[in-house]
Amino acid sequence: MNKPKTLMEKIRQDLAADPELNELFQKELAELKLAEQIQAARQSAKLSQAGLAERIGTKQTGVARMERADYTGYTVTTLAKIAAATGSRLDVRLVPIRVVDTVTGGSGREVLRDLVAGRRPTKLVGYRIATKKKK
Predict the structure, then answer these.
(1) In 3-state terms, what secondary structure has residue 5?
(2) Splitting the chain (135 residues) into consecutive groups of 10 residues, what average pLDDT does each group show?
(3) What backbone torsions phi and psi does residue 115 show, to the nearest 5 degrees?
(4) Which of 71, 81, 109, 126 has its CA 20 to 30 A from that of 119?
């Protein structure tokens, strides 16, 4: 394998070489994205955590947990309630993942180490998951 020229090339090589690490990486990115979407939907609806909690039948602490990137207890039912309460549409789908396309800041190893350890990466500035385009 050629020596990577960029951080992104190094990350792609690391993920390609270790399917288990790639799976963990993708899972962490998805959870981070979902937590951010819940918070954004709540804020867009001009709801406090307590206000959203009341609308979906839980406590404020439950909403706070769901807005953390390390939360893993989401159910489709709860997500549907959040969508309805915030005037959003729930879109659950399975999308083939090609590769993580953009990660900036820090070393690839630092980002991957944080993700595998279940921590929100401190050096992850931005990301986008590239998917295969339909023909």
Answers:
(1) coil
(2) 74 80 74 84 96 97 91 88 94 62 49 64 47 46
(3) -65, -45
(4) 81
The confidence score (pLDDT) of residue 131 equals 42
* Domain enclosing residue 28, as ranges: 7-131
DSSP track, the chain: -PPPSSHHHHHHHHHHH-HHHHHHHHHHHHHHHHHHHHHHHHHHTT--HHHHHHHHTS-HHHHHHHTSTT-----HHHHHHHHHHHT---------EEEE----SS-HHHHHHHHHTTPPPSS-----EEEPPP-
Among 96, 83, 95, 25, which residue's Cα sits nearest to residue 74?
83
Residues 6+ apart with CB under 8 A from 88: 41, 44, 45, 82
Structure tokens at 125: 């500035």
Q: Is residue 2 part of a domain?
A: no
Which CATH number covers residue 126? 1.10.260.40
